[in-house]
Amino acid sequence: MDLFNSLNPFTKVFFSLLCIKILVQNYLDLRQRKSLKKNIHQVPAPFSGIISNEEHLKATRYNLEKLSFGKTVRSYRLIILLLWTLGGGLEFLSYSTLSQSNDYISVIKFLLYFFAIEMVLGLPVSIYSTFVIEQKYGFNKTTKKTFITDLFKSILISSILMIPLFLGLLKLLNVMGENWWIYSWAAFIGFQFILIFLYPKFIAPLFNKFSLLPEGELATSISELLKKINF
Prior knowledge:
Helix content is 76%, strand content 0%. The chain is mainly α.
């Protein structure tokens, strides 16, 4: 308690919100786990006759394992987040890469180092999830070549999108004075809205193949549902 009281107000808010997020996530996981275990040996009524008991059991065990792994991943990511923030990781990286004038080259250098470190730290999670859990239950369709190719695509796309964004935010910081954070927030929100339109048309096709759903009962049912909800 004495340690918490010694923290500055911003750090207290950050730490408090982080604790609330962890509690909510664990609570939701607990509820989902109880529901899965309760119905593990019986196909729910809405799906009776659609999937077999074996398929239902396989899916339930898969979801239970994903929940357990997700809890481990959250703990791992929490440690990394605390090392970046309260542990001084971001401060050390900024001192190592940013010049006193905050020129754009040093900002790009900072971002590239940060993305590279985050990518390396996230690799064990992606590899285990894809080639252990997904492979175990027969859901993995990704080859090692595809995994590596998609990884480099993600790095390239992230660099193309994020570096100009952060350079723009730095420019706003330098020219907008005390209200820089308002303009930066508006720019970031606008950027997210732009991504909503760019992702399905330009980004997603780089990682997945899409084709029209063939005419039939499924396509008709989906079309009728969309019309019904006016979507």
